[in-house]
Write a structure and sequence with these properties.
49% helix, two-stranded antiparallel sheet, DNA-binding, 138 residues, homodimer, elongated, 6 helices, mainly alpha
Chain lengths: 138, 138
Amino acid sequence: MLSKKTKYGLKALTFIARSEDDMPVQVGKIAKSEQIPQKFLEGILLTLRKSGILGSKKGKHGGYYLRHEPSEIKMTDVMRVLEGPIAMVPCVSLNYYEKCDDCPDETLCSVHRLMIEVRDSTLNVFRNTTLADLSSVD
Amino acid sequence: MLSKKTKYGLKALTFIARSEDDMPVQVGKIAKSEQIPQKFLEGILLTLRKSGILGSKKGKHGGYYLRHEPSEIKMTDVMRVLEGPIAMVPCVSLNYYEKCDDCPDETLCSVHRLMIEVRDSTLNVFRNTTLADLSSVD
DNA sequence: TGTAATCCCTACTAAACTGATAGGATTAAT
DNA sequence: ATTAATCCTATCAGTTTAGTAGGGATTACA
């Protein structure tokens, strides 16, 4: 299941991308427009900022803005920040690899082989989708 | 993340498929060979039986067996039984569709569109993979 | 007919995770 | 100063996960 955190995060990013006139967007505005609990959203945008996807400006008239063009922001990066590893098992994760306790030989493990295929096909989607695709209104 | 339940279930199915000489396979044998807590595995095999993927024979010399040829057992079915819906959000689920509370218009929702693509690519893997693929030793 | 092996079923539990709330500290514009 | 924003930490109720416990029901076979 996609966590609410990720869902909210994606919606917020889309919102910011759509309202780009180089003015920072306030959490409150996003929360209201997208029906997201504001305090919850605060934390989400914070992690997006810490990861380098968003920038922020503090104080009055502050808010969040994209650090790069929407077309440069790949879903692989966004999803990893919000949802964690893309692979469904650590033993097929590119960025968070971990060996299974059981499983003496990965190449013989049926789960391993299946999950590599799932990872690759999901990765293929995320690599070929940017925030620009999400926020286009076609 | 893939649940242990699913992981264990897939390993067990693979084990049964590999040791097919038409004799039912005992939970204890699978548990020992695959390093799975036996009581936990019991429950998993039970749900696989109730779903029609496995059959069982009670009493001495009893055990579990496949109800169909491995090449007929598609991962779509197995995954839905073990892991639940394949879609990451209910609003793009084929078998368990549910509208989002928020989201007045799905066709305009960025998350919706992205998740449809993920669903389709994952589905494509599961539809083209059978237990025979998992249990082959190439 | 008794006994051992096996599936079957229900209930319980500890730990982790999720989604959210609370309360305030810090910063900046006016 | 006041106000409006981000930032940070802690807390919490509910759910899920992974597993354990204990036994009931069924069958093979001596």
